[in-house]
Amino acid sequence: MVTVLVNGACGRMGQAVLKAVQEDSELKLVGAVDIKGGEDTGKLVGLPENGILVESNLTEALQRLNPDVMIDFTRPDVVFDNVMTALRNKVSPVVGTTGLSDGQKEEIRAAAEKLGTPAFIAPNFAIGAVLLMVLSRQAAKYMPDVEIIELHHDRKLDAPSGTAVQTAAMIAEVRKAHKQGHPEEKEKLAGARGAEYEGMHIHSVRLPGYVAHQEVIFGGLGQTLTIRHDSMNRESFMPGVVLAAKKVRSLCGLTIGLDKLLEF
Ligand SMILES: NC(=O)C1=CN([C@@H]2O[C@H](COP(=O)(O)OP(=O)(O)OC[C@H]3O[C@@H](n4cnc5c(N)ncnc54)[C@H](O)[C@@H]3O)[C@@H](O)[C@H]2O)C=CC1
Ligand SMILES: O=C(O)C1=N[C@H](C(=O)O)C[C@H](O)C1
């Protein structure tokens, strides 16, 4: 049995994770933290009351409950401190929160190795999104001109999405960096061509009604190829989160990406 503390428990993802953990026979929910605090973690997600309340002090909860794993879905500006707190307490972080910088990831890698506590980060836990990234990397070998459009709900704090950045990074593994578009192109309105990652353009759409969606469009001579993924709800991420929680303790150092836990 893997014991789990959920951080960010009152949020959209946190609540879905609370439910998924309580419904899985190999995971045991032992604690939950959110700056909002207070509620019973069964009642909060429409399950029977279980007496495990959402607390507000992460360090205190980790030290008292000593879980195997902390699952974090909080905010880009607090996730780094949360992860380092978990590692210092020998608890393995499974991180879905996006927005960690490359430098922060390297610090997490070093701490995980030094403290002998494995850590796992995935910018997207939905299997379809993982396939989109892996297939995009394959396609870019043959169609290296590519633009990424990500579309999310308008409560999202970071842009571009973690998935879009990870997709660009995976494409960059096989694509020689080059500037796309006309060499003399000029933006008439700042930002019209989106963000740039090694010459690839990333466009972020934020609207009510969306959950999480991404298109990767490849252009070639007389043809285009579009790969699209849609998360219709937050349950789409749960099989990946549950898998990572079960596997993280068997990993070493820092692992980034759900593709590392799957066979291709
Ligand atoms: N990797 C993946 O597959 C996915 C990642 N995400 C990411 O997860 C993060 C959370 O997303 P949502 O659940 O939609 O956000 P949300 O805003 O609904 O939930 C965040 C929760 O964290 C709590 N919180 C804020 N600061 C905290 C702190 N210092 N300690 C403990 N709790 C704190 C808030 O009170 C809130 O309840 C975002 O970064 C989002 O991009 C979202 C969906 C899937
Ligand atoms: O904020 C979200 O909702 C999501 N965030 C992640 C990201 O930034 O890629 C994963 C998914 O797209 C949902």
UniProtKB/TrEMBL annotation:
On subunit structure and binding partners, the annotation says:
Homotetramer.
**Where on the tree of life does the source sit, at the highest rank?**
Bacteria
Per the UniProt record, the source organism is: Selenomonas montiformis
Its GO biological process annotations read: diaminopimelate biosynthetic process; lysine biosynthetic process via diaminopimelate
User: What's the top EC group for this one?
Assistant: oxidoreductase
Residue positions annotated to bind NAD(+) are: 8-13, 39, 96-98, 122-125
Keyword presence, Aminoacyl-tRNA synthetase: no
SUPFAM superfamilies from the UniProt entry:
Glyceraldehyde-3-phosphate dehydrogenase-like, C-terminal domain, NAD(P)-binding Rossmann-fold domains
Residues at which (S)-2,3,4,5-tetrahydrodipicolinate binds: 153, 162-163
The record's annotation in Pfam families points to: DapB_C, DapB_N
- Its name, as the record gives it, is 4-hydroxy-tetrahydrodipicolinate reductase
* EC numbers: 1.17.1.8
| Segments forming domain Dihydrodipicolinate reductase C-terminal | 128-249
The active site is formed by 152 (proton donor/acceptor), 156 (proton donor)
Quote the function comment for this protein.
Catalyzes the conversion of 4-hydroxy-tetrahydrodipicolinate (HTPA) to tetrahydrodipicolinate.
Annotated GO CC locations: cytosol
Task: State the UniProt keywords alphabetically.
Answer: Amino-acid biosynthesis, Cytoplasm, Diaminopimelate biosynthesis, Lysine biosynthesis, NAD, NADP, Oxidoreductase
Q: Which HAMAP family match?
A: DapB
Name the gene behind this protein. Answer: dapB
Provide the organism lineage as a comma list: Bacteria, Bacillati, Bacillota, Negativicutes, Selenomonadales
The record, for InterPro entries, names: DapB_C (IPR022663), DapB_N (IPR000846), DapB_N_CS (IPR022664), DHDPR_bac (IPR023940), NAD(P)-bd_dom_sf (IPR036291)
Molecular-function GO terms, alphabetical: 4-hydroxy-tetrahydrodipicolinate reductase; NAD binding; NADP binding; oxidoreductase activity, acting on CH or CH2 groups, NAD or NADP as acceptor
Subcellular locations according to the entry: Cytoplasm
